[in-house]
Amino acid sequence: MESVQAIKQRFGIIGNDLGLNRAIEKAIQVAPTDISVLVTGESGVGKESIPKIIHALSHRKHGKSIAVNCGAIPEGTIDSELFGHEKGAFTGATQTRRGYFEEADGGTIFLDEVGELPLTTQVRLLRVLENKEFIKVGSSKVQKTNVRIVAATNVNMFEAIKKNKFREDLYYRLSTVEIQLPPLRERKGDIHLLFRKFAADFATKYNMPTIRLSDDAIPVLEKYHWNGNIRQLRNVAEQISVLEQERNISSSSLHQYLPNIGGNLPSVIEKQSSNSDFNNEREILYKVLFDMKSDLSDLKKLTLELMKNGSSSVQKDHEQLINKIYGNEVAPATIVENDNYPESNYQAETHQEYLQIAPANGTNNTNVVDDKYHFAEEIEEEETLSLHDKELELIKKSLERHHGKRKLAAEELGISERTLYRKIKQYDL
User: Fold this and answer.
1) Which stretches does DSSP call E strand in 216-335?
2) What is the mean pLDDT of residues 421-428?
3) Do the Cβ atoms of 51 and 150 come closer than 8 Å?
4) What is the reported pLDDT for 262?
5) Is the entire prediction scored with pTM above 0.85?
6) What is each CA distance from 103 to 71, 107, 142, 390, 424, in whole angstroms?
7) Which of 133, 187, 421, 426 has a 20 to 30 A CA-CA distance from 240?
C-alpha cells in the first residue's frame, strides 16, 4: 500500500493539513474494495482527486474511469446520458446510444454534483446500486452492469433530504464511506504553498519570471476567507502573474486581487422596513407606561402608609420618592397645594389625585379614612388596566391639553406625528 506522501506526489496534491491527509488515507483504505464512496466538501476544494486515487489503487484500474458532472446535464436528457436509449425512444433519438453505466462496465464512474440529480433519475441510480441493473430509455430489457460508483457533492445532503430534494435511501447507499475534504480557509499552512506552486506553473506557462509575495503580503493571503477555495486561489495567482509588472508582490498590490476583502469578518446589516419607526416608537411608549405604573404603585403604597399613621418618617420617604420621580422640576408641596401648575407637567397631573389624599402636613383626609375600602377598590381597578387603556388615556389627555394639535401632542408623547395620526384612527378619537 502506497504512503500518503507518495500518493500526493503521484497525483500532484499540495499540502500537509491533517484533514487533507486523513481524507487521502481513507481513499487509500477503501480503494481495493467495491464500496460506494461519497466525497463531500465545498466547491473548489479538489474533490475530483479522490475518485482518481480510488480508481488507480483499485482492481478496476485497467477498466474505464468516467467522470460525469450531473449538474451540467439537462434534466430531460440525463437519463439518456447515464443509462442510454433505444432508437426512436424520443424525438431526435435516431439511433441506439450506450449510456455511461454501460460504457464504464468493469470500471469506475464518478458522479460529480450528485445532489443535483432529479428525483426520477435518483430512483434509477438506486436500482443500479442495489441490483447492478438498469434499463435504457425506451427499452424494456434489463441490463447488468459491474460499475463502482464514487459520488461527490457540495450540497448539505441532510438539508436536501428534509426538503425532499434527495432520497434518503439513496444517500445511505452512496455514503457507505464518506470522505470529507476541508475548505482552504481551514488549511492556512497550505495556502502559501499552493500559491507558490501555481505561481511557478504560470511562470512556465507564460514564459516569465515567477511572482513572489513580500513578507507583509503572506499574512493577507492566509487570512483571506477563500470562498472559492483552491479554484479561487489558482485564479488569483494567474491574474497576478499576467497583470503585474513587478514580480515582488506587496500586500497593497495583493489587496487589489482579493474581492470583498473587507467582508471577511461578519458584519451587521441594518434591515429597514416600513414599520420600523412605528415599532421603535411603540417600544418607547410601552417603556414609559411601565415606568409610570411602577411609580404609581410606589406612591399608592406610601399613601396607604400615611393614611394609617401619618408618621414623619413616612412623610419624609414620600417626599424623597417625589423628588426621585420629578427631580427638581416640581416640589412635593407644589404638587399637593398648588392648583395652577403648568399644563405641560403631565406627570404631576397624573399623580395629583393620589397625592392629595395625603397632604404634605401629615394630616389625614377625613373622607379617605372613612372610605378607605373605596380607595382600595380604585387601586385594584387601576392595576387591572391594560396597556391598550393606558395608551388610549395618554393620547386623549395629551390631545386635550394641546387643544387637538397633533404635532405638539406627538412631541409630548415622544412619538412621530404619523404614528399619532395612526393611533387616532385606530382608537377612533
Assistant:
1) 248-249
2) 78
3) yes
4) 45
5) no
6) 20, 9, 16, 79, 77
7) 187
